[in-house]
């Protein structure tokens, strides 16, 4: 009987240990990234940065963990201690605020690009986007219009500003469907959940989306400039590698990739 109880105790202990290990794995997702360069990037950089990261890894042998999302959400996460090394925002105001509160490496703030927005729909759509431009949002067949959530996505704020500029926002606001970020916004249109939407030019120029869609580029003076900024975080343990990645972005290979995705670059 004593032997049986001993085995049960061992089994119970083993089970509890295994469960503890599972809980640790669930609650500490960042530990798997130890040693990698971790980058938080606005989702308008989706295709451009996947290509950029791939080239950087091939050239340097470094490993990069790229996480894409909304600039505003990343800003909040970083304020609360999220362990990223580099932060690429679609609105330079966010990294400037981090700089003001002492959360960044002094002198690391860099305006890496200016973004553009487009009205985009599927190529099979009957909507004459190329001819009517943003006025196509008023087409009677349009039931849902996708934009990024302007509360935390700079591209969403630019979309609202552009609609206001053309005096359309009040007329279509009840048809708006909000994506968590600009990539999700594009997915809404690609999936047919929305008829049309306003997305980043960088996404519209990605090979897959370019083949499946058509777009009209919204004039730059129709909304505040989408000045995009990057910063190295003071909490980073990979500051030298973060600087190396920024230098690669600024170099000829990085500039070629960013230009191909429609970004205007600093001189």
Automatic annotation (TrEMBL):
- CDD domains in the record, alphabetically? PBP2_AvModA
Q: Which residues bind molybdate?
A: 71, 182
- Which Gene Ontology molecular function entries are recorded, alphabetically? metal ion binding; molybdate ion binding; tungstate binding
Q: Which UniProt keywords apply?
A: Metal-binding, Molybdenum, Signal
- Give one Pfam family: SBP_bac_11
UniProt-listed GO biological process terms: molybdate ion transport
InterPro entries per UniProt: AvModA-like_subst-bd, ModA, ModA/WtpA, TAT_signal
Q: What protein family is recorded?
A: Belongs to the bacterial solute-binding protein ModA family.
Q: How does it assemble?
A: The complex is composed of two ATP-binding proteins (ModC), two transmembrane proteins (ModB) and a solute-binding protein (ModA).
**PANTHER family, sorted:** MOLYBDATE-BINDING PERIPLASMIC PROTEIN, TUNGSTATE_MOLYBDATE_CHROMATE-BINDING PROTEIN MODA
Q: What name does UniProt use for this protein?
A: Molybdate ABC transporter substrate-binding protein
